[in-house]
Design goal:
six-stranded mixed β-sheet; binds magnesium ion; eight-stranded mixed β-sheet; binds 2-oxoadipic acid; 14 strands; alpha+beta; Fumarylacetoacetate hydrolase, domain 2; 277 residues
């Protein structure tokens, strides 16, 4: 055990190996050529290595020009965990260049093998202290919004282990924020519960899945609290203006052959995109 984690932070690989892995993933993304899992070449790769590789990847992204848009949680529902065979929530970063307009168009050829999934998004009105209580954290949310996420593994066959997917920035590739949305207090005033809103996922006009937001880590608010804590453990915090995706409540759908995708969330409205080859 000790020999697999020689570094004090729990990582086992050197910084130059992290940089090399980050570059391989960035090239895979830019060339739309999925690669072998990093853990196939580095079986000793730990979650701490993966976090360092993901951070190095963001620093490299688009030649260092990527700007922060927020954070995403992944694998926060049983349906998502079962789909990819990884059974732990993960955290990734959202960049401004990943944004796709609501009612906009997604170009499938811009990705390796993209999938799409419904999301609940939080837009933060205030910075959040890593030790803030649950009520305080929810009070920092300006708006809760319906969203879609485009995920695209940079690994072959969309297959990965937990450290692989963390190193690959949790397959983050694109996000859509719809509307009109609602504030947490507005939801309460309307007698709606953030932790139990109906989510309808529609592909080419056909409802392919339905869930309650209760499927997300005991509710999206709980997911947000767990993000605040895990970022806090890494010396990071959520800030005003950050967008946060809570993680899909249902399995993702491959974009191949799809023309239109829509999510409708009870009390929040809807988000949609067209898909082109
Ligand atoms: C990992 C990303 C998971 C979610 O909402 O669960 C995710 C993947 O499925 O490739 O974004
Ligand atoms: Mg997601």
């Amino acid at each position: 055990m000790g020999s697999a984690q020689p570094n004090r932070d729990g990582s086992s690989l050197a910084a130059d190996v992290h940089a090399h892995c980050a570059l391989a993933l960035e090239q895979a993304r830019l060339q739309r050529q999925p690669i072998r899992q990093l853990t196939a070449d580095h079986p000793e790769l730990q979650v701490a290595d993966a976090v360092a590789i993901a951070a190095a990847g963001i620093a490299l992204r688009n030649g260092g020009a990527a700007t922060h848009a927020g954070w995403k949680l992944g694998l926060t529902s049983r349906a998502k965990m079962a789909q990819v065979g990884v059974f732990a929530p993960i955290v990734g970063r959202l960049c401004q260049d990943m944004r796709v307009d609501d009612h906009g168009t997604v170009q499938r050829s811009a990705y390796c093998h993209p999938r799409i999934e419904p999301e609940i998004a939080f837009l933060l009105a205030r910075d959040i202290d890593p030790n803030a209580g649950g009520a305080e954290i929810l009070a920092a949310v300006g708006m809760v919004l319906p969203g879609l996420e485009i995920i695209d593994s940079r690994y072959r066959d969309f297959r990965f282990t937990l450290p692989d997917v963390i190193a690959d920035n949790t397959s983050a590739a694109g996000f859509v924020v719809g509307g009109p949305g609602e504030s947490p207090s507005g939801l309460r005033a309307r007698g709606l519960e953030l932790g139990n809103l109906g989510v309808i996922f529609e592909v080419d006009g056909v409802q392919v899945d339905f869930a309650s937001t209760a499927a997300i880590l005991d509710g999206p608010a709980h997911a947000l609290v767990s993000l605040v804590r895990s970022l806090g453990a890494e010396g990071q915090r959520l800030r005003a203006g950050d967008l946060v995706l809570a993680g899909a409540p249902v399995a993702a759908v491959p974009l191949a052959g799809v023309r239109h995708v829509r999510v409708m969330v009870e009390g929040l409205g809807e988000a949609s995109v067209r898909v082109e080859d």
